[in-house]
Amino acid sequence: MLTWGDSPMAKDAPPAWSGKIAHATLEIGDARIQGSDVAPGGYETPRGFAISLDPDVAEAETLFAALAEGGTVIVPFQQTFWARAFAVVTDRFGIPWIINAGEPSA
Question: The pTM is what?
Answer without folding.
Answer: 0.73
